[in-house]
Amino acid sequence: MSFAIAIDGPAAAGKGTISKAVAAHFGFAHLDTGLLYRAVGAKVLAGAEPIAAAKALMPEDLEDSSLRTAEVAQAASRVAVIGEVRAALVDFQRAFAQRAGGAVLDGRDIGTVICPDAAAKLFVTASAEVRAERRFLELEARGSDVTREQVLADVKERDARDMERAEAPLKAAEDAKVIDTSDMSIGDAVETAIAAIKVQREG
């Protein structure tokens, strides 16, 4: 029996960390759908045409260690506004959501577009300033030469692009539980998420 959990939210809100912990807790498979767009973005940076890159995407493309760079993140956000790219990746995501044994998908439009009938939905968010600081520390630890101001500007730019795009804009599904992690520890955020999913699962 399939059981899909949809976790959406903006960049660096903590949804990836929460999603992995939730998947581990329930014994479900996990898909960071942002990696699909990052993989397409990386191919575009290498000279590929966006729609062709999306249609040719393979699971092994998601294992490239370079997908976590700030440059690829911006490229991912740019290709994500292309309707044909999104359409090409929908089937990949929906097939994953139907996996026997349960699945956790995190992204921008899982609860609203990809899995509107998901058994449980969360929207994980935090202030732009908190998210930028988290992303800055993450990039700094990897040796990236960035400033806090630059990362905050990137976060705000990406938020605007994600929220204002015509196709599947970033927003909370009406029946999603909103979790603001601005003042939460990772442990508290994970506990809150698991508790909310149990309520939705039993409801």
Q: Which assembly state applies to the chains in this document?
A: single chain
User: How is the CATH topology named?
Assistant: Rossmann fold
Shape, principal axes of CA atoms: globular
Distance between the termini: 18 Å
Query: Strand-residue fraction?
Result: 5-15%
Number of DSSP strand runs: 5
Mean pLDDT: 94
- In the CATH hierarchy, the architecture is 3-Layer(aba) Sandwich
Provide the domain count: 1
- Tell me the structural class: alpha/beta
Any idea what the CATH superfamily is called? P-loop containing nucleotide triphosphate hydrolases
Largest sheet properties? 5 strands, parallel
What level of helicity do the residues show? 40-55%
- Taking all Cα atoms into account, the compactness measure Rg is 16 Å
List keywords for this structure.
203 residues; 5 strands; Rossmann fold
Written account of the structure:
This protein is α/β, with parallel strands linked by helices and about 200 residues long. The protein has a single domain, classed as Rossmann fold (3-Layer(aba) Sandwich), CATH 3.40.50. The chain is built from 9 helices and 5 strands. The chain has helices at about 15-25, 35-45, 50-55, 70-80, 85-95, 110-115, 130-140, 150-165, 185-200; strands at about 5-10, 30, 105, 120-125, 175-180. Strands 2-3-1-4-5 form a 5-stranded parallel β-sheet, with helices on both faces. Helix 7 crosses helix 8. The chain is globular. The mean pLDDT is about 95.
